[in-house]
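Just wondering, does anyone understand these tokens?
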Amino acid sequence: MTEYAISRNPATGEILARYPMQNAEQLEQTLAHSAQGLKQWRATPLEQRLTILSQLAGQLRQRQDELAQMATLEMGKPIAQARGEVLKCADLCDWYAANGAAMLAPQATQVENQQAWQEFRPLGVILAVMPWNFPLWQVLRGAVSILLAGNAYLLKHAPNVMGCAYLLRDLFAATELPAGVFDVINVDNAGVSAAIKDDRIAAVAVTGSVRAGAAIAAQAGAALKKTVLELGGADPFIVLADADLDEAVKAAVIGRFQNSGQVCMAAKRFIIEAPIAAEFEARFAAAVQALSVGDPLNDANYIGPMARFDLRDELDGQVQKSLQEGARLVLGGEKLAGEGNYYAPTILADVSENMTAFKQELFGPVAAITVAQNAEHALALANHSEFGLSATLWTANLALADKMASRLETGGVFINGYGASDPRVTIGGVKKSGYGRELSHYGVHEFCNVQTVWKNRR
């Protein structure tokens, strides 16, 4: 019996499409296709690879509306944010097209009577297991650097956004990229395992949950294959008493509620210094209450539905458990009535370290506020987590901010700003948020064979 990946509109519950999943024979055909494409691609001059990235940027801009609408229909992203995601992907392609040559240039070193230099060679076909929350950006932020290095990219996307996956394949097909170099597999967990074991897969990139990352890393490790993991986060958003409260509140709203709160690297635990805690809570609640919730195809709405109905149930369970544990409900705290998968923008206060809302990742429109007695206490609270993706710190004392940043156990720190990603700098985490880096030249080199070449001068 054929199994299907089901694309469902979370705003209505309507099934948009059913995509047949591949059997073992079809997976074999795709792997063979990728391996064949790799042979041509790794021999393609770098200058031509850069040109193809520019072509991809053009395709993204040309088909912006189509791509944005697919993302909105499949996972509920508000349409204005979806259009922004497409343009961000195009800018990413342009940046790598302009700077990629320098990243892959040989690095020479004199070693006594010999010449030595390091070359950046492709590893092979990279399997990428990607999530639904940024169905275009999450794919391309890794794929572009992986392809730039001369690798092939095989995408296993989340089942609920397979329409986005196939649209991305169409975009690459409209460039001069050789066939098979960017391809898609639609398989279950057993299919992923089979792909990891296959000798044609050189390495694996995963963005997703801790459970998924650990399972895939274990399989890849057994096959002696490299992995790069970007997993969950419970990012602290620290506001000290001397902070610009107006700007901090604005950043808090965006940092928590963009993409309907479904962001890995986003503010989740709001750690507020005691003298300003009450004022921050009041201002934050007023700003969140003013956010419009509704049809994600309507530009006026900032918050759309959650992507999956099961995840809304899970989020509501975390909220209710936190309330039972002693958290105070400031705002929201319930599923919204109707056929759509909406959850009320929610703020929990008086959240302590032993509560669910503090310990677990809240992947949806829910913020948890914890009061810190001073800066040192705030730092301790921030680091009291199994996650370490990013952190945000608001204070007028920049010298203190620098010292605190050096002690935050995270892959990224934002001082007087909020979580963002940019191709010029890396993204990645520590602890259970994963390992390895994406973006910048580090992201390119993650999937390179850094080959040292020695030449005797005598």
Observations:
- The chain has a mean pLDDT of 97.
- Residues 4-231+433-456 form a domain with the Aldehyde Dehydrogenase; Chain A, domain 1 fold (CATH 3.40.605.10).
